[in-house]
Amino acid sequence: MSLALSPFDEHSRADKTRTPQRGRPGSTNGIRSLRETMKRRGRRTSFIERELLVLHAAQIRASSILLPAPVILTGFGLSIFTGAFVAGLWTGLTLLAYLVLVILGRRANAAQEGPAGRTGRIGATTFLVGHVLIGLCWSYLPYLECHDCAPMRFEIFQFSVLVLVIAMTAMVSSTLRLVVPITFAPLLIGLLSQLVNHSDPMTAAMDLVLVGAVPFFAFVAEALRRGAVAQVRHQAEKDELIGELERSRVLSDEARRRAEDANRAKSQFLATMSHELRTPLNAILGFSEVMQNEIFGPIGSPNYKEYLDDIHSSGRHLLGVINEILDLSRVEAGQYKLNEEAVDLSRVAAECITTVRLRAENKRIALHLQCEDNLPMLWGDERALRQIVLNLLSNAVKFTAPSGEIVISVGWTAGGGQYVGVSDNGAGIPQDEIPTVLASFGQGTNAIKSAEQGTGLGLPIVQALVKLHDGQFELTSREGKGTNVIAVFPHSRVLEVMPAFEDA
């Protein structure tokens, strides 16, 4: 047997060395350490700022069609109040400033989608410069005058436009830090300078409202920005957790595959060793039988014959253990092939009772067979079915007290299949030990105390053979009340006889 690693193991080890270990995902300590990592500043903070900058660029691109609308409408209104030349010049410069901002957003998007996955050299300062250019254009609006307009008409127009623009900037560019106060700082300076010289209280009141609107919408923009920061942080944390879960899933799959490979190697090794052991063991049994029967002459001392009886019985017991290990290892390795044919399950049960009857009579145990009438044939492996019934009966005889009773029943299931069940009134199995006795080499406390200890492979072999027949195995037991085991075979394996066609 080679000790070299298989190609799968080599790849698994290579992958495992490349996979970072950050604690056990799914455990409390692993998630707590991950959350502490998420709360650290430095690289995480720069990542959040970069993501906010990407969101800002995306918002600029998304609103690039709507941004010129207020400028064009304002220019149309200015053409009525101040004339076409001033309105056209202001509109062109403002649209040019917005165009610069949109170009910056598109360049940031192109850089972010590039191989580097970053926004390139376009940072927050560059976007703020673009917003300052736009703010300068809007800050010129309060300096315009309309001498031929009725009182307060042009001032109300200016007030409405500026409030709308401040609100729009706060909503569209909220992910950029301090965008509202920096953009409209020139406007604040102009309004404060005019506020001192205004004699009209209505105009002064509107300028004061505009001055107050800048910090108000700056607060609104900061609240929206904090919400975006929380969303980015939660998304990053979720991505980290998903990555950890994905890495743990990969490691778990690799560990499961390695365990399956090891289990198959173990089963193959047991099957090979069982074959190798059976050959000399059969020779031991054969030679011991020759010496028992004194074929080549009498044995000098009678003690030798007793020793031969012990050697022969021990050899048969060892052969039975090896056969059980061989059967289980072949099933686990997927090398057990069913030789299927039509089998009478009632006949198999009756023959198995004949096999164990002598052992049962030695313990004064009563055996009863209950079969339903006219059961059709079952499609299966007769040797495997016989082994199923024999293992169940042997366990029942082994763990039933003298003068006990065992009932084996064969019949229909509610779904149209067939079943074979064995029930006894023996010592029973505690509920917490049922998984143990159903596992390979598992033995309960009653088996350990019994003088007839086995290998603990009888029930696992029964389960494996029943599963090969697409059936189900059930075991119910109560301590001191006995045990009931049943093997159920599906309706698809029942060979129902079709009625003969009558001639017309």
From TrEMBL:
InterPro entries: HATPase_C_sf (IPR036890), HATPase_dom (IPR003594), His_kinase_dom (IPR005467), HisK_dim/P_dom (IPR003661), HisK_dim/P_sf (IPR036097), MFS_trans_sf (IPR036259), Sensor_HK_Regulatory (IPR050736), Sig_transdc_His_kin-like_C (IPR004358). One of its GO terms (molecular function) is ATP binding. It catalyses: ATP + protein L-histidine = ADP + protein N-phospho-L-histidine. Signal peptide: none annotated. It comes from the Bacteria. It holds the Pfam family HATPase_c. It is an enzyme of class 2 (transferase). Residues 272-493 form the Histidine kinase domain. Keywords: ATP-binding, Kinase, Membrane, Nucleotide-binding, Phosphoprotein, Transferase, Transmembrane, Transmembrane helix, Two-component regulatory system. The chain crosses the membrane at residues 79-101, 122-141, 153-171, 178-196, 202-224. Its EC number is 2.7.13.3. Residues 8-18 have a biased composition (Basic and acidic residues). Residues 1-36 are annotated as: Disordered. PANTHER family: SENSOR HISTIDINE KINASE RCSC, TWO-COMPONENT HISTIDINE KINASE. This is histidine kinase. It comes from Fulvimarina uroteuthidis.
